[in-house]
Amino acid sequence: MSSSSAVAATVDGAAIPSANVSQVKGWLLNPWIDTFGISLNMLPIALLSIPYFLINPGIPGAEDRFQLAIVGMVIAALIQAFVDVHRTETFMVVFGDGTPWRQRPLRFILTPVLVFFFFSGLAALHLAGIARGEVMLAAVLAVLSFVEINHFAKQTYGFMRSYAVKSGGGLETPEHGRRDLRFVWALTITGYAWFIGHSGLTQFLGDLMIGMLSVPTKEIEQLAGWVAWAGGVASVVTTFDLARAEMHAKLSFRERVPRLLYLAGRWVPFVLSWLLVARYGLISLVLVGFVQAASHAMEYHFFVSTHQARRYQKSDSDVLAARVFRRLGGRPFFAFFLIAAALWAAFHNLASAPHEDVAWIAYTVIFTSDRFVHFLYDRWIWKLRKPEVRAPLLAQA
Fold first, then answer.
1. Of 30, 42, 234, 278, whose CB neighbour count within 10 A is largest?
2. Host domain of residue 368
3. What is the CA 344 to chain-centroid distance, rounded?
4. Residue 6 predicted with pLDDT over 60
5. Residue 297 class from Cβ within 10 Å (0-12 exposed, 13-18 middle, 19+ buried)?
């Protein structure tokens, strides 16, 4: 049976193409999107972010760069818009597709309601004067940061496993999956512990909380330093273990390229950012977080849009996601983005509404709830063991 006609599963009327062993080896989407949209996307994002970095007050001569400041702010706003918009793509997959929330309706319907009411309750405590807004904001940001780090690590691990499954040669086994997971967490923990210990972040938070909350700045930085060194040792061990397994995989060099390119594109800039933070401190940490968030959003966008297009382009399904992709001709670029942009514009309009304090609180509640729901939904829907996820991924790129 040819690859174009084979069907592995049917979900909501969508015929999912099957994949044989010959189809597994290769790129996830196609060489161009994989290389520049996913693996190496940090490079153009970092270059575009340089103007925003140079106008920061902490950089010498920033006050003399007025024209650059305009360019930097416009670029930063566009990149941040893309970061915010990518989360709405998750809702298109969940509710436009219909499969996830029909399988677990209570989970997917009650989660956003409960999360929104939780953060609305925190906002109500602040407005009533029961809790200090600064302390609550710091607590929420701390939890959100932890969740985001976990989210970034899990997405990177997911892409590594996807490339392993596409490559085969032994890399697709559960044993190698555990090896990938150890590698991801060793470098992630090392990096963020290093950032805490060398960026001046704890000192900044300590100054912010003066008179409200005592922050043991030196103790936190010392602990972060110990964690970073221990994580560094673990990173070296897991890197050598991963390299050994990669070398023993039964693959040609051409078959290794997609996964190796992704590994290099994700982790080399991340490790180099440790040096940047050590040199420039908190200013560079903001830039690193900005670039990483944008890179994360871009790889997610290209993956989701192409994955869904591949799933529905030859389907007679009548669900919303299928109708959208058929109308767009299965084009991966900005497939969801144009729809999500309108939602983002309405979402951010709250920031300029009357009664600025209340508007900003409402914006924060919606923004934070949106992020948490996105994290949870992604964790539930993108499982390689699910036929509606795995089969389009393994289809011929």
1. 42
2. 7-171+249-394
3. 17
4. no
5. buried
Give 194's contacts (C-beta < 8 A, 6+ positions apart): 224, 228, 274, 277, 278
Give the integer Cα–Cα distance in Å for 352 and 122.
Answer: 22
190 falls within a domain: no
Sign, Cα dihedral of 24, 30, 33, 35: positive
Distance CA 194, CA 226 (A): 9
Residue at 225 is within a domain: no
| DSSP annotation of 346 | H
The pair of three-digit structure tokens given for residue 240, joined into one six-digit string? 């050598």
Percent over 90 (pLDDT), the chain: 16
Is the pTM higher than 0.70? yes
Give a yes or no: residue 390 inside a domain.
Answer: yes
CA-CA distance, 171 to 49, in Å (whole number)? 35
Check residue 22 and give its pLDDT.
37
Which range of 75-89, 112-126, 228-242, 284-298 scores highest in mean pLDDT? It is 228-242
Return the pLDDT at 2. Answer: 31
What's the rounded Cα separation, in Å, for the pair 18 and 33?
22
Mean pLDDT of 242-248: 92
Contact 116, 376 (CB under 8 A): no
Q: Which of 76, 85, 127 is nearest to 359 (CA)?
A: 127
Torsion of CA 129, 134, 140, 143, to 10 degrees: -140
Residue 236: CB atoms within 10 A of its CB come to: 12
- What single string gives the DSSP state of each residue in 309-345? HHHHTT----SHHHHHHHHTTT--TTTTHHHHHHHHH
DSSP 8-class letter at 397: -
CB atoms within 10 A of CB 192: 19
For residue 339, the model assigns a pLDDT of 53
Structure token digits, residue 354: 């009357």
Amino acid 183: pLDDT: 96
The total number of structural domains that make up the chain: 1
Between CA 276 and CA 143 the distance in angstroms is: 25
